Request: fold
Amino acid sequence: MTAPAHPPVSFLPLALLAVAFPFLIAGSAPPTSTYFNQAVAFGGCGVWLLVWALTARPSLAAQPASRATKLLLVAGALLVAATLTSSAPWGQRFAPLACLVLAGALMHATAAATRAGRLDDWAAPLMTALLVAGLLSLVVGLVQVFRPELADGRLVSYPTIAGRAIGNMRQPNQLATLLLWSAAAAVWLGVRERQPLAVMAAVLSALVFGVALTASRTGSVGVVLLALWGLVDRRLPKPVRGLLLAMLPLYALSWWGLEQWLSAHGVMFYGEDQLKKTLHGDPSSSRGKIWANTWDMIRAHPWTGVGVGAYNFIWSMTPFPGRPVAFYDHSHNVVLQLAVESGVPMALVILGCTLAALWMARPALTVADDDTARGARTALFMLVMVGVHSLLEYPLWYVYFLLPAAMLAGWLTGLAPVRHADAAAAPTLSRLAGAWRPVWCATGALALAGSLWSTVEYGSVAVIFEPELSWGEPAPLAERIAQGQRSVLWGHHADYASVTMAPKPEEVFAQFERPLYHLADTRLLIAYARALLARGEIAKASHVAARLREFHNPASADFFALCDAPGAAPSATPFQCLPDPALPAEALRPKR
Reply:
């Protein structure tokens, strides 16, 4: 198929809103630092889908889907089913459900447009937006490393570690993946639009230097993948392949140069610390421990898993003497997360459908048309990049990565050939040409409405932590908490404030459920243990205290100080000092 020579202007502003802008938002309000980034990505993609569905030709809805596209839709439907059947509180499941539905619609729409040869509807605007997001995020990173005093929290997020770029997502690994996605977009756009090699070299060099600024080990792996792409992809022009191969030594030189420059200015380059940790046997920053804990949870719940949204609660309440000391709400590995939450059989089916879809899309990588093959290979590289990142963290649990990834998947599978049987059904499909349009329109409209509703609800919770965000005179704290607790999506934050501040937490016992399933921490576990004790559930209180002890958190020192008091009679032993009863984690769920 032949792509239009110039991308239309119509969808580019929508792509900039939905894809580029979310990566660049620096402002935040507690309790979630990236809330606005994710809300804009969700609502913006909804607007893009809605406008596209309203303006696209009816024939687009009749495009037969490839088997690869269908298999990805099946995988998504299974994820939706697993989320719906979980016993976790709805607040832990509602937002993921909405994101999965929107991602499926975007993937299907992108595949349909691609099948019709309309790359300028989704693929080209997406790649342009990612390139813009990467280049502007590079500027943010440069300020954070070289002129941190200019960071104002409005245009540039405050750097949290001297000598390290974190972007406006406030996570260096996410910034590294964005920059590598931007590099891939620069390659595809540059070849497609026949940009001078010098321009492409300047853009790629700047982006790879930005990856070095993050000192991200995930980013280092990504640069290696970028070089491998240049090594194996013979559909790219030879000068471009050489340029990609040159990025690896450039990255090493950037790493060394940053270390020298920052040292000369009295700042330690964070990459030096990362390198030392890797060489001294900690290549994954304690991820090995959380993976080991997750594997034990999988063995304990192999068939149906612990339930989507229940990972943090079950992990926090399960005895793990060798657990990492940080509080985790995710296993930091997408395969383990699928298995532990949904069960091994469901995880195998979902992963099987995904891998089979990629296998069925492989003809798109080898078609005679160089432009089509380059597009498929670019999309595959970018999916592999975020997939590798997902084996170490959870970028796809962030809306601004999930939804572009869904579009990339639609682009790749949309380029896959369609079976003769599906193509023969085209006349029948054409009679139903409008069947998908209402689905796309409804999904886009609901996504826009949902993002606005979510933001209003989020505001009712944010004022608990920052009263100055209130409209007019702030209400008393108790009223703000009560208002926030009515939020379906964010009420767990209000519940957290309520139970951790309550003089008698047993009186608000039912309010423990949502925050315990969201993310347990020292304050919450201490309050929960005391509430259980007051209710006469001493064994459960001792179990929670034993779990808290495993985290070795300094904030719990006063709580356990009684255990070191000399001369106490056995009958008067404080509950937090009793032997660990090691109860089943499921028995610790608060009962209303």
